[in-house]
Amino acid sequence: MPEQYDFALVNGRVVLPGGVIERVNVGIRDGKVAALTDAAPAAEETLDVEGLTILPGLVDEHFHVFHGYG
Fold first, then answer.
1. CA 1/CA 36 separation, integer angstroms
2. What is this structure's pTM?
3. Cα–Cα distance measured from residue 66 to residue 64, given in angstroms and rounded to the nearest whole number
4. Which of 1, 27, 39, 49 is a plausible cystine mate for 35, CB 3.0–4.6 Å?
5. The domain spanning residue 11 has which CATH number?
6. How far apart, in whole angstroms, are the C-alpha atoms of residue 11 and residue 49?
7. Which residue range(s) make up the domain with 21?
8. How would DSSP label each residue in 18-53?
9. CB 16 within 8 A of CB 40
10. pLDDT at 28
11. How distant is the alpha carbon of residue 34 from its chain centre?
12. Other Cβ atoms within 10 Å of 7 Cβ, number
């Protein structure tokens, strides 16, 4: 049985410390990245992000500072 995720980003370009991975899927569970996979993750909600870049673990400093979260 495949793992279940709360949310999945599919078909994205992911930037990691070692480089960029094209067309990868990101499984998110409990608000954290739980998997980077070629297989389509089973998730309660899925968002196709084809053509977009995903920066896992990055906190947008501008959003948090300007909106009082930081």
1. 17
2. 0.77
3. 6
4. 27
5. 2.30.40.10
6. 6
7. 4-66
8. TEEEEEEEEEEETTEEEEEESSPPEEEEEEE-TT-E
9. no
10. 93
11. 9
12. 16
